[in-house]
Prior knowledge:
Helix content is 27%, strand content 28%. It has a single domain (19-211), classed as Vaccinia Virus protein VP39 (Rossmann fold), CATH 3.40.50.150. By secondary structure, the protein is an alpha/beta fold. The chain starts with a helix and ends with a strand. The longest helix has 14 residues, at 131-144. It has a nine-stranded mixed beta sheet with strand order 3-4-5-2-1-6-7-9-8, sandwiched between helices. It binds S-adenosylmethionine. S-adenosylmethionine binds at residues 6, 17-18, 45-47, 49, 65-68, 105-107, 123-125, 128, 165.
Amino acid sequence: MEHAFWQERWRENRIAFHEAEPNPLLTENYDRLKLSAGDKVFVPLCGKSFDLDWLLAKGLTVIGAELNEGAVQEVFERLQLAPEVTQIGALKRYSAEELTVFVGDFFQLQADDIRPVDAVYDRAALVAMPDSMRADYAQHLMAITDKARQLLVAFDYDQSQMSGPPFSVPSKTIATYYDETFTRELMSDTAISGALAERCSGQEQVWLLTPQSAP
Ligand SMILES: C[S@@+](CC[C@H](N)C(=O)[O-])C[C@H]1O[C@@H](n2cnc3c(N)ncnc32)[C@H](O)[C@@H]1O
């Protein structure tokens, strides 16, 4: 989607994707990422998600990327962190203690900005990208994280039921982006619930992507 689409959603507070607490699919499947305190997790297109707070509470270093600066400021405020703000190329970098969030276009983020990454948590990021951008998103994500393992939350529904986002990204489509690089395991497969269930019916799926070269 165009940046203006998302900025308008934020301006008009049309952010049904934002949840009031950490996503249960993260908390229930987190252990499969095999992270320890001190490891670094990257959260692309992070919004102002409470998943960031939850990951920090696990003792992780958390790196986010988000277009909307107000959302990022809100995260630092609620965590009572006073960020140092620096300009890194086209991006603004907000950083305090173990949290860093890059404000701007995800596609401008470079591996050296975030390296090394131990894992990626993708909720409402791949599925926020339209078909025309999704392969580039997946490629860029793998490039800047050196193909780190991922916990990926995706939807599988009949796209004719509604226009995205979130878009339907079924198993066979995910395969085209990731199966050359990762072994892919289905962690959970449940009926779409919540506000989205009023717009479509289908499945919400959690995938664990492990690099094929991993031991
Ligand atoms: C569906 S929301 C999901 C937010 C968050 N992951 C969550 O679970 O609440 C997608 C987010 O991606 C951001 N976004 C969209 N395109 C982006 C881009 N090219 N670079 C950085 N952020 C982007 C939007 O501003 C929006 O906050």
